[in-house]
Amino acid sequence: MSSSVERKRIRKSPAARRAEIVAQAASIALSEGLECITLRRIGEDLDVRPGLVSHYFPSAEELVAEAFGSAAAAELDAVLPEGGADTSAVERLAGFLARASGPAWDGISRLWLNARHLSRYRDSLRVRVEAQEADWRRRLTGLLAEGVERGEFPSGEPEVVALQILVVLDGLGANAGADVESLPVEVARMAFRVAESQLGLREGALDS
């Protein structure tokens, strides 16, 4: 009887294996950049044959797009969760701005800059970037519309204000090299001041 025992591989369901591949690609995207995602790299990281990765994603371009979409969607859920009707719109907006302006935002901010640059040359990625931009606008607009309906925000057009806030956050990330801690306080809090001004709130109302 042979003393050697062949290591058994755990056979995963197609859905579980695909999710594992996307999760690993998203992790690389956040830590190293979308350019570092290759089918071979994912195979090595997961200790599987590259052919298995290509079974789910025939091209690296498709995997890059999926990795970005997964990371951006997860970040949206983290900084601006769906629902929350039991919490005031003011509190939820303040929480969103705090999370989207803090150090934890740096990684996703770099990823957005990376994705927008590469999307000029990659059609699949451009489609995912546009879809994620729409999702972020939709969710923030919904929160602002709810606040206006409840009378928590005295004024403001939700869709317009949502765009203004997101443009400021994008601009801060781009101009600061995605390092919000390096900015003067007056600059770092620009998204707060814009939101307060456009929604008819007193200055500082969203700082808490």
Explain how this protein is built:
The relative contact order is 0.11. The N terminus is likely disordered. Helix 1 packs across helix 2, helix 4 packs antiparallel against helix 6 and helix 7 packs across helix 8. This protein is mainly alpha-helical and 208 residues long. It has 10 helices and no strands. Helices cover 66% and strands 0% of the residues. The radius of gyration is 21 Å and the shape is elongated.
Q: Secondary structure elements and their pairing?
A:
Blueprint: H1 14-31, H2 39-46, H3 50-56, H4 60-79, H5 89-100, H6 106-118, H7 123-150, H8 158-175, H9 185-188, H10 190-199
Helix pairs in contact: 1-2, 1-4, 2-3, 4-6, 4-7, 5-7, 7-8, 8-10
Describe the structure concisely for a colleague:
It is built from ten helices and no strands. With 208 residues, it is mostly helical.
